Inverse folding.
């Protein structure tokens, strides 16, 4: 995995952490630990899913590329729904503020993943083979 990707991911996470502190100042939520756990979850998942997506981009096979990228996006969605289900089961408050925050995290990290994928795809995906199943 490239250091450049990890640096951008760390920058995004740091920017969202600053935004979270601002949210705490204005909204004053009661269960702040869930916010930090969710942010850490997305940061770790960003590294794992980013690694999977980047290995799919480097593949010469279009089918490997497609299944790797779509699989990574599907895995992110599945893990996010699982985390949200755990929150709704375990938490006593079930705060709407946290759920909106969590969905914004999903949106930001998914957009980040797609932009990094597209920027990596342009210079590295040079194969002219279509629909190969190697």
């Amino acid at each position: 995995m490239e250091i450049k990707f990890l640096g951008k991911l760390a920058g995004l996470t740091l920017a969202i952490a600053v935004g979270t502190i601002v949210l705490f100042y204005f909204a004053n939520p009661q269960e702040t630990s869930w916010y930090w756990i969710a942010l850490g979850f997305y940061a770790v998942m960003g590294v794992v899913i980013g690694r999977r997506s980047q290995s799919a981009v480097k593949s010469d096979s279009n089918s490997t590329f497609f299944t790797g990228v779509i699989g990574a996006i599907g895995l992110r969605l599945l893990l996010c729904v699982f985390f949200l289900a755990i929150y709704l089961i375990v938490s006593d408050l079930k705060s709407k503020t946290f759920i909106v925050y969590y969905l914004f995290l999903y949106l930001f990290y998914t957009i980040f993943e797609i932009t990094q994928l597209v920027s990596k795809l342009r210079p590295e995906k040079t194969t002219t083979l279509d629909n190969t199943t190697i």
